[in-house]
Recover the amino acids of this structure.
């Protein structure tokens, strides 16, 4: 649980053994944990002190793990997946059966998934399968990134982060449609995905607007706004968030280090550099310049680590 501060206690502090691996892709954090019996707590007081409002997808790859959130206790068997949120109290008991537990976790902002917070909340506390389908694809990619991230270039990791986010979004949408949540409008969701695809394909068009989206998809502007209200976001807000994501990735990609921040912002539809900088800082907590600078440092560190290996 590296997405937010937690308090950890061990059943036997003297004999306790634990290993933690972390890969930071940007807005996505991946961690691996192997530990003897222990418990991790995230209390209401800790949430008030610091809450990054992250969604965490945890995969139990070995041993017994018990997760409690919203007063629901769930036992994770090997190959089970579980989703929890850092904004609500949670307790994770590792190696509950006595044997060492191995787990993988992916933490990301829930707003990255283009699914409403209300619908995502219905998925927390429900054991899901990581043995087949999209769940298995996520587990495979995360396992590879934890084991071999130094083999990839920074530009590769930037793009793989986008792939991972998309896989988790697909996984959550499928579970909402066929699994734990039955009050889900499958036709409406499919239509919304088509609109999302259209927007992504036209993000570089400075003329992209709710009116353009509605006309291209054969619906009224009122119906379009109603669809997005079900996702707890406005059409313009969703467009803006996707454009910021593309800019963030390009700023971190060595392939675009020769381009100015203004050129990258303009490529994704931002006509004012100062307005873009303000939006970027509000979304990610750092300026575009600082984000690019940190990405270059991370890239240099990966190169050094790769040589030393």
């Amino acid at each position: 649980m590296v997405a937010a501060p937690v308090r950890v206690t061990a059943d036997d502090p003297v004999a306790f053994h634990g290993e933690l691996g972390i890969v930071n892709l940007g807005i996505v954090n991946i961690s691996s944990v192997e530990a003897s019996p222990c418990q991790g707590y995230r209390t209401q007081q800790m949430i008030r002190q610091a809450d990054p409002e992250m969604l965490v997808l945890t995969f139990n790859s070995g041993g017994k793990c018990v997760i409690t959130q919203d007063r629901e206790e769930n036992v994770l068997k090997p190959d089970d997946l579980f989703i929890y949120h850092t904004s609500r109290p949670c307790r994770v008991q590792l190696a509950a059966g006595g044997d060492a537990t191995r787990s993988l976790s992916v933490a990301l902002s829930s707003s990255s998934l283009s699914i409403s917070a209300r619908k995502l909340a219905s998925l927390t506390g429900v054991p899901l399968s990581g043995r087949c389908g999209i769940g298995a694809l996520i587990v495979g990619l995360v396992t590879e990134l934890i084991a071999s991230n130094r083999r990839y270039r920074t530009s590769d990791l930037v793009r793989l982060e986008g792939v991972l986010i998309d896989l988790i979004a697909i996984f959550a949408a499928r579970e909402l449609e066929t699994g734990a949540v039955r009050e889900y409008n499958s036709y409406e969701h499919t239509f919304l995905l088509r609109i999302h695809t259209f927007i992504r394909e036209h993000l570089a068009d400075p003329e992209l607007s709710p009116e353009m989206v509605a006309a291209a998809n054969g619906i009224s502007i009122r119906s379009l706004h109603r669809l997005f209200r079900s996702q707890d976001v406005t059409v313009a807000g969703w467009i803006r968030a996707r454009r910021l994501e593309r800019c963030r990735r390009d700023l971190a990609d060595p392939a675009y280090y020769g381009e100015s921040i203004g050129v990258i912002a303009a490529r994704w539809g931002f006509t004012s550099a100062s307005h873009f900088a303000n939006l970027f800082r509000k979304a990610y907590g750092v300026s575009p310049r600082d984000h690019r600078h940190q990405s270059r440092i991370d890239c240099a560190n990966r190169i050094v680590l790769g040589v030393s290996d």
The two ends are 27 Å apart (CA to CA). The first strand starts at residue 7 and ends at 10. Residues 180-184, 303-309 have pLDDT under 50 and may be disordered. Residues 295 and 301 are 10 Å apart (CA to CA).
